């Protein structure tokens, strides 16, 4: 019998190649194991994508916070999804908000926010933030803890 709360995991515990693009990447989910509200945080301090104009690499420190509903994202599939951006050319804003919107579509969280802390391009750091609405009351949501860019000073 198939449990409707369980999705067969195809990447966990097996070798899995990085998708050629974020659109081709598979995000897997599992049932939320907790019936009380809580926060899940993923930190990706070495996120990489490509500048859509020059093709040069762009780097960011991403912090993804979400409060799950029925589903949580399976972490290996999230890592592979984020890795698929390494050969993907897009602006900082599109990468950051696209990751958030894809997670919202796949896992339907109660609340989600992402901070994209991008390293300078053309001498200007660009930070991009996305949030689905007001955070629910009663859940501890710590600051993201990423300092503003200070350069070498």
Provide mean pLDDT, rounded: 90
Binned strand content: 25-35%
- Number of helix segments? 2
- How would you characterize the largest beta sheet? 4 strands, antiparallel
Q: Roughly what percent helix?
A: 10-25%
CATH-defined architecture of the domain at 39-131: 2-Layer Sandwich
The ordered H/E elements are EEEEHHEE
- Could you give the distance between the termini? 61 Å
The side-by-side strand order for the widest beta sheet comes to: 2-3-5-6
CATH fold-level assignment of the domain at 39-131: GTP Cyclohydrolase I, domain 2
Q: Uncertain spans, ≥5 residues at pLDDT below 50? A: none
Number of strands: 6
CATH class designation of the domain at 39-131: Alpha Beta
SS content category: alpha+beta
- Shape label: globular
Radius of gyration: 16 Å
Name the CATH superfamily classification of the domain at 39-131: GTP cyclohydrolase I, C-terminal domain/NADPH-dependent 7-cyano-7-deazaguanine reductase, N-terminal domain
Folded structure, characterized:
By secondary structure, the chain is α+β, with helices and mostly antiparallel strands. The chain has a domain of 93 residues: GTP cyclohydrolase I, C-terminal domain/NADPH-dependent 7-cyano-7-deazaguanine reductase, N-terminal domain (GTP Cyclohydrolase I, domain 2). The protein has two helices and six strands. It has a four-stranded antiparallel β-sheet, with helices on one face. Strands 1-4 form a two-stranded antiparallel ribbon.
